[in-house]
Amino acid sequence: MNLSSENGYEMAYDVNRSYQRENRSGFYSQNHMEDTPTDSAPRDRNSDSCRLSVHTAVQIPEITSFRLTEVDVPPRRSSMHEFANQPISNNKQGFSTAHKMGRRTRGSCDSPLPVALKFEEISFRIEIKVPQRWIPGPAFVSVKHKQTKYRQILNEVTGMVTPCEMLAIMGPSGSGKTSFIKILAGRMKTGVSGRVSYNDLSYTSALKRRIGFVTQDDLLFPQLTVKETLIFAAQLRLPRSMTSEQKVERAEIVIKDLGLERCQHNRVGGIFIPGVSGGERKRASIGHELLVNPSLLFLDEPTSGLDSTTALRLLHVLHKNAKVGRTIIMTIHQPSSRLFYMFDKLLLLSEGHPIYFGKGKDAMNYFASLGFSPQLAMNPADFLLDLATGNADGITLPDSLKHLELCMQSSHNPSLLEKDEQHSASDISVDSQQLEYQFSKEVLKILRSSYKTQIEPGEKRAMEAIGKTPEHLQAVIQLRRDWTSSWLTQFFVISNRMFRERVRDYFEVLRFSQAVGVAILLGLLWWQAKIETEAQLRDQVGLIFYICIFWSTSSIFASVYSFPLEQHLLAKERAADMYRLSVYHISSTFCDVPSQILYPTIFMLIVYFMAGFEKTAVAFIMTMLAVYLIVLTGQGVGEFFGAAILNIKKAGTIVSIVLLIFLLTGGYYVQHIPGFIKWLKYISFVYYGFRLLLKVQFSPSQTYECSETTGCKSLQLSPSFAGIIDLDGGAEEAWILITMAIGYRLLAYMFLRRIKIGT
């Protein structure tokens, strides 16, 4: 076991493995050795070089330990080749030992594998659906005319972000910020042109676990507490080489780093569920990604809905995470002045066109050099957004635009012009709105052309100057790591999480009251019913069919909304390779089974003995098993339609129609179905469930309508059964229901695979 010490990283790795990779945490080779002088004075965080104490537990294959060193992280890098080979010592220090020794100081964020992000000439367009037209053709034949139109969202965006930097993407609504950050994160590929590279390599699936993505809407389970959310994420995302106690400890470290101790035992909450505040929920979402120590962290509008103080606190957390070697890219709409000057780099978009890329603190000077400057003190972000929309109110303009500005002002107030100019102004035929539109277009035209001539060439030269990434850094990020935990471990963790999330729905008082209330009502209506006449037999058959209706409906609607409600969470977690899809699907089914079994059991215990069903142990057990089969098959049907449609409103509507068809062809309302639609009853699980319950409760040997003259009649000869159903057997219906229950779930799984994991 050897120890690599490089720029603040000290990692033990096995030299006998088939590959030996070295990790480096910055772009400056500073030859920091294990014995850092203890008397060196720490520098100010806001100075040109931040002195950080890095607590490192790097999660890449075959790395088995870490050490703590003091590192200087410079704010700028000039070349990827400044990673120099470092000497290797034979000192060993494991994760748990070092942590127990308390060797963790300020700045507990782990130093990740450095990844430089480059994007060159990125353009993106979407296809717009145009209503199809029918054009008359020769000989009175209409021709279907297809029109394909595209809308350009992004236009040739170029730049680079290196480790220890935080890039903010600004722009007005609709400028393409969210689309651009999704492209950079590898979550949007259709309609994209240009090249995005990570350490000079294209995106591969191996990068998934090195990328953290925080969506604009916090996608977390609302019923879980903050601590439960992070612990479950740690158990799923951290490597199997770590023990369960270490994973929990890691989650607690992140909670402390993000300042979530006060609310860690509170529910996350959501739209309809009270929980933590918006800032706390956003920090929990960020902690969810920081657990795995990502090299690249993407955040979509992290400060939306937060007050300025909470947003500043959140940016401080992100700034600290960037300075340990992480590359952070975020979209932000309108930051305060204090937030604005925290950004290392700024990309300003206007209608998909870049109009500035560079240091945030240099943005005002750049636009002043073009002749655009605020006439009074204002937030730099407000000034930049006004320019990005072409709005020049309260802004000093370059000389080339002053005449057009004067014309626009004169359209509102002609008296502003000199006497000799009023005649020319009166000849302007364009109304004020059109003139304002033309003026904003001229402003944007100048800004875009200035970017092309002044900023873009310099950025391209900087990308060339930084050089090619060393091969060992490229090799590390291409390693396709196995799942962080086994299938069985994922199953137990996901099942536990799902059960905690849904337990309140499972044991809801309303559901319990519904099952008990309906059971008592049916028991009273069919109190100790007997089978002595044809009418009484029909009543008993009607009760059995109603039981099929009740539990078919309950089971379908209890499961049809599960996948549509969780599809975005599923897509997010699968994009991070948290677990296998099969684990999620089986866990979802498994967690729903207890409630699907509990309420039918309570229901049947009440109805069975009140309604006077067959009072034998075999009949009771077989009846319960038949009801369970109906419920589980109905659950499978609900999962299938929920996974196939993935829309709550549409799924509810379609399932209602399908359920109506199943009930009408179930064998009670219509006995003789026309031949051309007779096939419908063979795909109805209600049909087989109803027949199975009848065979369990009745047998050919039973008699009714006994009299001294004619004797007793066999139930098989009853008009309710004769020529319709053979009361012998029941195994066929049971096997068909089992096959349907499994088949619908397999179909649901196949449709779940269609969910795009990047959306």
SSE inventory with pairings:
Elements: E1 2-6, E2 9-13, E3 50-54, E4 63-66, E5 69-73, E6 88-89, H1 95-100, E7 117-129, E8 133-136, E9 142-145, E10 148-161, E11 166-170, H2 177-184, E12 192-198, E13 211-214, H3 226-237, H4 244-257, H5 278-290, E14 296-300, H6 308-322, E15 327-331, H7 337-340, E16 345-350, E17 353-358, H8 363-369, E18 373-374, H9 380-388, E19 395-396, H10 399-412, H11 419-426, H12 432-465, H13 471-477, H14 487-506, H15 509-525, H16 534-559, H17 562-575, H18 581-610, H19 617-645, H20 648-664, H21 685-697, E20 703-707, E21 711-714, H22 731-752
Parallel strand pairs: 11-15, 11-16, 13-14, 14-15
Antiparallel strand pairs: 1-2, 1-6, 2-4, 3-5, 7-10, 7-12, 8-9, 16-17, 18-19, 20-21
Transmembrane segments: 509-529, 541-563, 625-645, 651-670, 734-752
Subcellular location: Membrane
Region (Disordered): 27-49
Would you kindly provide a written description of the structure presented here, covering whatever features stand out?
The structure is a single chain. This protein is an alpha+beta fold and 759 residues long. The protein has 22 helices and 21 strands. Strand 16 (345-350) and strand 17 form a beta hairpin. Helix 21 packs antiparallel against helix 22 (731-752). The two termini are 42 Å apart. Its main location: membrane.
